[in-house]
Design a protein that fits this description.
486 residues, Butyryl-CoA Dehydrogenase, subunit A, domain 3, 18 helices, 11 strands, binds flavin-adenine dinucleotide
Length: 486
């Protein structure tokens, strides 16, 4: 593998001190886990590279629809070695610590070091499915989903339909109650973990008279129904341009047995909560990809010569590498600040407090900004590789390709800006934001951001949307600078 990747075998925790710095800032129990995180930094630099690179280039998931005697089986065949890596990640307690400690920090710290977009996607889906069941469902299967108990189960969260991913209110999947079970009918167009998921959380319309997102509830859909038959059909696996270590497909729900999560009328709150876990994962993962691109580019520039000298010795290359390093630190600050606030409130249930809304506000900012930082960082790193960066044997090719998806899934960047606006205007969290940052930010910076926001509020509704991303970036910069300059 060292011939394919310069990051291979280099402890990802030790290579760059940004994670250490940021965890010291936000996580009171960090010391307790520091050695374990270091050990994980070594593990991810070896097996994870080998298997994910192999899957991406050589053995992508495939589907077998029929058994040898013609029964429909919809079996998604993944590289068997991937399962071994997933078991190992459970042994590292990547998901279980969340409920064992009632804290999200450990999960996200490891997620940053893992940061393979496909493999981490599998882990995050198990994580969010497990937490939602732990909080809102009476069964014990959350233990298997979170890796507390064996056998380990896999989860999934299937919301998107062809009619709209951002616009979830356009979901057409219907849920009808039949005795003690619900039956779901519809098509889910993007379904990650398909085939390997044992239990999936699915959005569906429980009352056709209630239009938009308010008419959606969240349901638990097992892979097999009570007769032991396939509970839904896999239409196909997607042929994707990124994240190949996680299978993503399209699923047809045909009278698929389902169990209600929580209360019908709170469906949209559960969906938003579930998305908050995965948006934080996305933020952390995006910056983790930036870290990998940093290691690859740094090590490449120590080996590649131009004009008689190694690239690493040229001022402009040094500047490029410094920019990536700076992006990593900024992205980690934003992500772990959001984790810190969400960690305090994630045990809450609807109706949530204003502090919960504040954590969601920070999450939209982190999700949006980290995707941009990741894409920018992998782009710089790819340029450092020059023409080699466009060859499939180059490690940076996959990293840059995978960084791109972090801007789209879990809600595209425009949608994050609009959702941030919604929570800002409807829940009025700006006061909390200012109160919080008055503890660390300089007065002139606080005044500047307050004035900016005051002027922003004078805009008409169209302009408010038009400038929403600008506002988000202004807030992101303010948060980053406040911590960097304290
Ligand atoms: C590899 C992969 C795996 C995925 N896995 C899953 C999964 O497991 N489960 C799942 O539910 N989904 C999954 N998705 C779907 C993903 O969440 C959606 O693609 C995403 O939310 C965007 O939805 P969309 O594709 O329908 O785009 P659209 O909603 O059509 O948006 C298209 C563009 O328009 C912008 N836009 C939309 N509305 C507005 C507006 N009002 N103002 C300004 N701009 C707007 C968006 O920002 C976006 O850039 C996956 C996607 C990918 C690529």
């Amino acid at each position: 593998m060292e011939y394919f990747s310069y990051a291979y075998g280099l402890n990802h925790f030790e290579y760059d001190n940004s994670l250490d710095k940021v965890l010291k800032l936000f996580w009171k129990d960090y010391k307790k886990y520091q050695d374990k995180i270091k050990c994980f930094g070594d593990y991810v630099s070896r097996d994870v590279y080998e298997i994910t690179e192999y899957i991406d280039r050589v053995s992508r998931p495939t589907i077998r629809y029929y058994s040898p005697i013609g029964e429909r089986i919809d079996y998604v065949w993944i590289n068997p070695y991937l399962k071994i890596v997933l078991e190992k990640l459970n042994e590292f307690e990547i998901n279980s610590r969340t409920i064992l400690d009632n804290s999200l920090f450990y999960h996200y710290a490891l997620g940053y070091l893992l940061a393979d977009a496909g493999l981490y996607c599998i882990i995050t889906l198990n994580h969010q499915t497990g937490i939602m069941l732990y909080k809102y469902h009476k069964s014990e299967i959350y233990k298997n989903l979170l890796g507390v108990e064996k056998p380990y189960y896999y989860g999934g969260t299937w919301l998107t339909e062809t009619y709209g991913g951002s616009d979830l209110g356009s979901n057409r999947t219907i849920a009808k109650k039949l005795d003690d079970v619900w039956l779901l009918n519809g098509i889910k167009y993007f379904t990650s973990n398909v085939g390997i998921a044992d239990y999936t959380l699915v959005s569906a319309r429980y009352d056709e008279n209630i239009k938009g997102i308010r008419g959606l509830a969240l349901f638990l859909v097992p892979k097999y129904n009570r007769d032991g038959k396939l509970n839904y059909k896999i239409i196909r696996l997607k042929d994707k341009s990124a994240t190949n270590s996680v299978p993503t497909g399209e699923v047809e729900l045909i009278d698929s047995e389902a169990h209600l999560i929580g209360d019908l009328e709170n469906g949209i709150y559960y969906i938003l909560e579930m998305l908050t876990y995965s948006r934080l994962d996305n933020s952390i993962g995006a910056i983790g990809i930036a870290l990998k691109s940093y290691i690859e580019a740094m090590e490449f520039s120590k080996r590649r010569k131009a004009f008689g000298d190694y690239l690493i010795n040229f001022p402009l290359i040094k500047r490029d590498l410094e920019e990536i390093k700076d992006n990593i630190l900024r992205g980690l600050i934003l992500s772990f600040k959001a984790v810190y606030e969400f960690d305090k409130v994630f045990s809450q249930k609807p109706k949530f407090s204003r502090n919960y809304d504040y954590a969601r506000f920070l999450t939209h900012i982190a999700k949006n900004r980290t995707a941009e930082l990741s894409i920018r960082s992998t782009l710089i790193a790819r340029e450092i590789f020059g023409g080699f960066g466009f060859l499939n044997e180059s490690p940076i090719e996959r990293l840059h390709r995978e960084a791109l998806v972090t801007a789209v899934w879990e809600g595209a960047t425009n949608v994050q800006a609009l959702d941030m606006l919604e929570v800002l205007l409807k829940k009025n969290v700006f006061d909390l934001f200012m109160e919080d940052f008055s503890k660390i930010a300089k007065q002139d910076k606080l005044d500047e951001i307050e004035n900016y926001y005051k002027n922003y509020l004078k805009l008409d509704d169209y302009s408010k949307q038009y400038y929403a991303k600008e506002l988000l970036n202004k807030f992101a910069n303010f948060i980053e600078e406040s911590y960097l300059n304290q």
